[in-house]
């Protein structure tokens, strides 16, 4: 009987050890499969301050420095072709940081941590930002709708895209890296001249490198048939308004380097009314991707 008793106990112990081992392996698997949080390490400049300079004079000693030029183009919401046309421009005293520190969007937005991808356009600052799970992954300048043809604000989703298409407003305008966000009105973001102020016919103009990035970053819609959408694309939030009766707002940076900063709370307030709709569409896309696999 004792032999049987000890044998039974030994078997019970082995079963408990095996069960514990299985649970440990299960926990490890869950941990291993959990998607790691994406955090980008950006280089911060030693100081952030600005001054206004005459464009032609500044270019004489700085035009050959492409890293400086990229920052200055973005700061003045323009591109290479239009920069020289500007009389005066805002210039940072320190160029040692990454672009994110010279543009107004926050590096992290806690309210967006559940959102896999989103693009946000700020009308007042004429800038955009792309976030992945609350982390800023890309930002740049934009020139949005002019006073006569303002860009509509609110929540949109990317629809269809084309490397090159023709404007519905003027068939002589070729739009490169175009991504539509409002099909009926023909509104989208794409590459086009950035004169340094809101000048478009409601679209969101971008530098070519930025247009290419968003062209790849965002998802197209998934159609059920020719007339019905099964899954919408990447959420796009456009917010705020531009003061067309005042000087360019980024010129204020010379007096106050933080004058255009967009606080995290502002992004949260702008996205909050749309968050449920964004997450519901995200679940549909994830389910569609799973079904495809």
Biggest β-sheet strands, sense, barrel: 5 strands, mixed
What is the structural class?
alpha+beta
The shape is globular
Distinct helical segment count: 7
Rg is 25 Å
Count of β-strands:
13
User: What portion of the residues fall into strands of 2 or more residues?
Assistant: 15-25%
Q: Between the first and last Cα atoms, what is the distance in angstroms?
A: 57 Å
Major sheet: arrangement of strands: 5-4-3-13-6
Low-confidence stretches: 1-8, 15-36
- Please give the share of residues in helix: 25-40%
Arithmetic mean pLDDT? 88
Order of H and E elements: HEHHHEEEEEEEEEHEEEHH
Organism: Flavobacterium branchiicola
Keywords: Acyltransferase, Cell shape, Cell wall biogenesis/degradation, Peptidoglycan synthesis, Signal, Transferase
Family: Belongs to the YkuD family.
GO molecular function: acyltransferase activity
């Amino acid at each position: 009987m004792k032999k049987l008793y000890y044998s039974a106990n030994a078997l019970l112990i082995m079963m408990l050890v095996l069960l514990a081992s299985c649970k440990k392996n299960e926990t490890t698997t869950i941990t291993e499969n959990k998607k790691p949080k994406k955090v980008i390490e950006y280089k911060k400049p030693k100081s952030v301050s600005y001054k206004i300079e005459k464009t032609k004079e500044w270019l004489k000693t700085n035009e050959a420095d492409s890293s400086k030029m990229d920052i200055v183009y973005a700061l003045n919401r323009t591109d290479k072709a239009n920069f020289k046309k500007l009389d005066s421009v805002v210039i940072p005293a320190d160029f040692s940081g990454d672009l994110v520190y010279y543009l107004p969007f926050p590096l992290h937005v806690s309210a967006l941590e559940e959102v896999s991808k989103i693009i946000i356009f700020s009308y007042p600052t004429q800038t955009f930002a792309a976030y992945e799970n609350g982390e800023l992954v890309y930002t740049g300048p934009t020139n949005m709708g002019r006073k006569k043809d303002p860009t509509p604000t609110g929540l949109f989703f990317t629809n269809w895209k084309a490397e090159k298409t023709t404007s519905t407003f003027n068939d002589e305008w070729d739009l490169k890296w175009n991504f539509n966000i409002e099909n009926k009105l023909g509104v989208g973001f794409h590459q086009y001249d950035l004169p340094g102020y809101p000048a478009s016919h409601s679209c969101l103009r971008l530098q070519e490198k930025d247009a290419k990035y968003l062209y790849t970053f965002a998802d197209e819609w998934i159609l059920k048939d020719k007339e019905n959408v099964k899954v919408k694309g990447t959420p796009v939030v456009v917010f705020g308004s531009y003061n067309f009766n005042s000087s360019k707002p980024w010129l204020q940076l010379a007096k106050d380097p933080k004058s255009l900063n967009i606080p995290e709370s502002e992004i949260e307030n702008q996205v909050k009314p749309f968050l449920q709709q964004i997450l519901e569409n995200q679940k549909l896309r994830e389910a569609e991707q799973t079904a495809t696999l």
